[in-house]
Task: structure prediction
Amino acid sequence: MKTSKLSLALITTLALSSSMYADDATEMAELKQEVKELREITQILIDETSDLKTGFNYTTVDVTKSHSGLGAAASKVYYSKSPLSIGGYGEMYYASTSREDSTKRDTDNIDVYRFIPYFGYKFSDNIILNTELEFEHGGVKEGATGDGYVIIEFMYLDFLFNKNVNLRVGNMLMPMGLINQRHEPTLFTTVQRPNTSKQLIPSTWHENGFMAYGDITDDLSYKIAAFSALQLERGAGQGNNWLRDSRIGSFRIDDGTDNNKTEKIGLAVVGRLDYTGINGLLAGASSYVDSDLTMVDIHIDYNFDAFRAYGVLTQTNRNNAPIGEPEKAQGGFINLGYDVLSLTQSKNKMPVFVQYESVAAQAELAGGGSVESIDTITVGINYFPHEQVVLKADYAMVKDNSKSSITDETNILSLSMGFIF
Result:
């Protein structure tokens, strides 16, 4: 009997101890949560006090975030603490070119290539304005020679409904390839954008229209859009730049007379699918169709630890091209890089890379014939002293296969700096 009473007392004591321990553990968890909340409130108060002093609530760039496939700086407004968001990017470069042809001509060039401010504004959490202005080659100056200009590179309203369906209206980047939407200098390793992104998918390519976009599943996203079409009559017959010179962009089009009569604007339909179901992988395809041509591409960007591989393969077919003008363009590039500083204790990045590219902007001509491809091998190195700042150096070896001489090559040494903010 005494043993039973003793056992009962022991069990009761253990039960009370366990209950007290559980209560203590619960209270400790609650206290930790309260401390976390107090810290967050304190940080908010610090930020608000700073805003009152400066008159502005700013948001820094989070390089890990991208809204609907845009670059980190272009996505800034979507994650901004303030209704007003200001961001942008810039790049300038020096290039030394030597030609191993009959001219044996060497040239140097230095260029304040681009300064791009982004201005965004949140009318509400679901209605967002995003704009990009471009000052290229130093902008414009009265009486100056050169090709500097200032343009609106996109200006649109986003109506955000849910993760599956959203609507974008205005002038926007065409969702084609890799670099057209993500053209900030920290996002590609070469000093210059690949020729694929100049002559085949003519970056930066932006047109007027509307687009629906969202996620089909957590790993699969889509874009479907209607845009003003390329104006091929403007660029036809201009060699390798026939696609690039056919963009409308943000400019008004007219027939060149004094009556301001507007030309008939063609309609293009664009579709895109991207898969991100494997960690570090973006793989997808996009297509552009109008009454004159069809353009398709497949693209990939894969990051695995210090290794990165990215590239694009694209082809364009043109209908009813006049005799002697391009009716087919094709080509692409592949870029392989490795961050050598990952082998050290440094927190900075220094990827070295090699890129192979082949571009045939006039792969077939109407009526027969073709212009051979231009092939480029580029080797180089980037250094990121900060995740938003990059210094680049590369050496490009360019072979124009349309010319008969086997020694007809161009070598280009380039240096650049770029940044996003």
User: Anything to note?
Assistant: Confidence is low (pLDDT under 50) at residues 1-8, 257-261.
